[in-house]
Amino acid sequence: MLYIGSDHAGFNLKQALKKFLTREKYNFEDLGNLKLDEKDDYPDFGARVAQGVATNPKKNKGILICGSGQGMAIVANKFLGVRAAVVCDEDGAKKSREHNDANILAISGNISESKIKKIVKAWLQSKFSGGRHSKRLKKIMQIEKDNFK
Predict the structure, then answer these.
(1) pTM higher than 0.85, yes or no?
(2) pLDDT of 37
(3) pLDDT at 96 over 90
(4) Which tens digit of pLDDT belongs to each residue from 67-95?
(5) pLDDT in tens, 116-140
(6) Which residues, in sequence order, are CB contacts of 23 under 8 Å at separation 6+?
(7) Which of 27, 41, 131, 138 falls between 20 and 30 A from 19, CA-CA?
(8) CA-derived radius of gyration, the chain
(9) HEC string of the chain?
């Protein structure tokens, strides 16, 4: 499943992204905020999406949008099995999947609709490349095992 979420700073861009995902025939679930609320807090929606991804981190994916993308990524990376990457272009999106097997994409709500479509498409179409990156991913997973108790 693909989970998406945003706070007020990413709400309008998320609405545009939902139209794009529907047009491209991606199944997704919007975990909020479901209305524009200038007083909402990004940790609430970052946690919801990360929790959804963490139920099956190899299969599930997430997209989070806030003012910078950074806050959402910080929250998401507090969940076991989640690898959230802040991305600002297509190359970064591809590498976050190919090299890091990122399962959550965190994006700034200040980018254009055309740019988010390109970034998301690149991210969703990219796969983990394995090879030398598998060794690094195993090290990350060991760090998680040692520190998430």
Answers:
(1) yes
(2) 98
(3) yes
(4) 999 999 999 999 999 999 999 999 999 99
(5) 999 999 999 999 999 999 999 999 9
(6) none
(7) 41
(8) 14
(9) CEEEEECCCCHHHHHHHHHHHHHCCCCEEECCCCCCCCCCCHHHHHHHHHHHHHCCCCCCEEEEEECCCHHHHHHHCCCCCCCEEECCCHHHHHHHHHCCCCCEEEEECCCCHHHHHHHHHHHHHCCCCCCHHHHHHHHHHHHHHHHCC
- In CATH, the architecture of 2-147 is 3-Layer(aba) Sandwich (3.40)
Catalytic, 133? Answer no
Alpha-carbon span 11 to 32, nearest angstrom: 9
Give the count of beta carbons closer than 10 Å to the beta carbon of residue 13: 21
Q: Look-up: residue for tokens 């998301």?
A: 120
CA distances to 34, 75, 135, 139, 149 from 63, in Å: 15, 13, 26, 24, 26
| Catalytic residue check, 66 | yes
Q: Which residue has the tokens 């491209």?
A: 24
Mean pLDDT (the chain) is 97
Q: Domain-by-domain residue ranges, the chain?
A: 2-147
